[in-house]
Write the structure tokens for this entry.
Amino acid sequence: MQKGKPMRVTMIHAIAESIPPVRLAFADEFPEAEIINVLDETLLIDFDDQLTPQLRQRMGNLIGYCRDNQADAIALACSVYAPVVDTAKDLIDVPLVSSYGPVMADAVAAGRRVGLIASVLATMRDSEYYLKLAAEEAGTVVEPRLCLAEDLIPVMRSEGQAGLERHLEREVLNLAPDVDVVLLTQFSFAAALAHLQKVSPVPVLSAPHSSARALKRLLS
């Protein structure tokens, strides 16, 4: 690493909508990093509620590609591929972070009752699993409160930022009386974080912001 050269963090995406939230999160949390975004929309198009061996291999190939292109760290922005990290992290010599790891640790630290918002059933299942795993690793227990809002991605694409904020605000306020913290499980939802933090009576966590903070610690 040349002196003064910024750390290169490569993010792997399955939808284009998760790229602006990543840029926003790193501008807030780790502005000195050089962010490279790699997008493969077929990762989601070909995903049919099941992480097949073929899809795992494709994600593994992308991780290797990023490493070969001088990444100092690699992070996944596609939540359903988080399980690939468990096997791939031992095959490369740079930090590899899933979309879940950092934000789940932050959620467990924030309170026992955790609200989870997702728009994909597989993401909801995986989110609950990784939340409980993070709690187990921290020596505590959590009470997940699940909110599956399958309309959020179509709303984001048809109504833009304002529509996403409006619909997420509704879901957050519905959860708030019964939780200590709300977790936005999908990277694309982080675009609404600033708005939600203003209107929510409980803390709201964004996966890319947690990832940016974790990567800054790992690379410092």
About this structure: The radius of gyration is 17 Å.
